[in-house]
Input
Amino acid sequence: MRPIPVILCMGLGLAGCGVVPGSGPWMGGAQSQSTEALPFDVIDLTPTTVVAVSRPLDVDVPSSTSGLPARGRVVVAPGDLLRVRLFEQYSGNIFPTISEPGADLGVQQVTDRGTIDVPYAGSVHVSGLALPQIEAKIINQLDGKAQNPLVIVELMSDRSGTVMVSGDVKSPGRASLLDGIRTVVDAIDSRGGLANPPAAMSGQSGSANGQLGSANGQPGSLNSSANQMEVILRRHDQVILRAQFWDLLAGRDVPVQKGDEIVVRPNSRVFTVLGAAQVQGNVPMLKPNLTLMEALGTVGGLQDLQANRTGVYLFRIGDLQQNPAARVRVFRLDLGQPVSIFIAQQCYIQPGDVVYITNAPLYEYNKVLTAIYETFAIFGIAKGTAVPATVF
Output
């Protein structure tokens, strides 16, 4: 039979092991280490330091977005189909009046040379011209052959003035600028809009996701799915825009030009909650800008008996993506102070952030006592005696 001290030590060892799992670290352990030797900086969130995280992050939206060139005019190119009609003011001339039949010259395709044929005007070069310019050019070539002719040119099939929309849209394919498409969102809407929302929005991908309906609206709604989809705009084989679809809906939509390629794909924006929270796991950001207070409310807040309200930590790894040489920052919030409520409302969460809620010292103490009690219970059984339940 092992002596009592050995068994007691084993029990304490087991107690130490019980402290480690995902219920969160002890506050004392987090505060006792010097941050100078750690690969991150610990910053206490105060009304002064919260300024560093008080501005919402413009995720994936380049600063050059506002400088994108305006949408170009719809111009004719080889392969397009044009319909030309010619009128004259008075009858008896080479072209009929507007009230007489025979003015429609039919539909013809722009040749590879960029020309069409018009009676009495001959070959008219139309490639690279807008419709009003083509009409003016035909009238100019009819000078001396017709009296004040009226020319109407219509683009019947826009073979070149299209944008390609692919990825997670309901009907991938080409969209013509003739259909009133002006912006990236117009092009996506013309192909049926977004397809199925990302899996993270279905409420099936984690313990946290399935419990968020009452706090954030219905998962998979427009707001949530749009914030989990990324839009890439390529022009002349160069990516000129990479943005969340929600950012475009929120006023950052940009004009398109013919030949543009738009790709829509999932890009889930989530943060992680660990420790003594009501719900742990990956949590989708159901709105573009989410504060720390809203994040805590999303998961139901802190566990009353287990959490240490003075030890709420925000780990920000995202700084390394912007600046690989930067040190990771860890923000510490003391919810025991009334001002911390206002601070948490000014602190914005970024995708990839980790919110860690530490355990209260009394909770850790109770865990150790429980392990000791279980050790004595085992020892009592080994000795053939019962340990009273009222020992602790």
About this structure: Residues 14-23, 26-35, 59-67, 199-223 have pLDDT under 50 and may be disordered. The CA atoms of residues 272 and 282 lie 4 Å apart. The chain has three domains: 33-59+270-359, 63-71+161-266, 81-157. The longest strand covers residues 307-316.
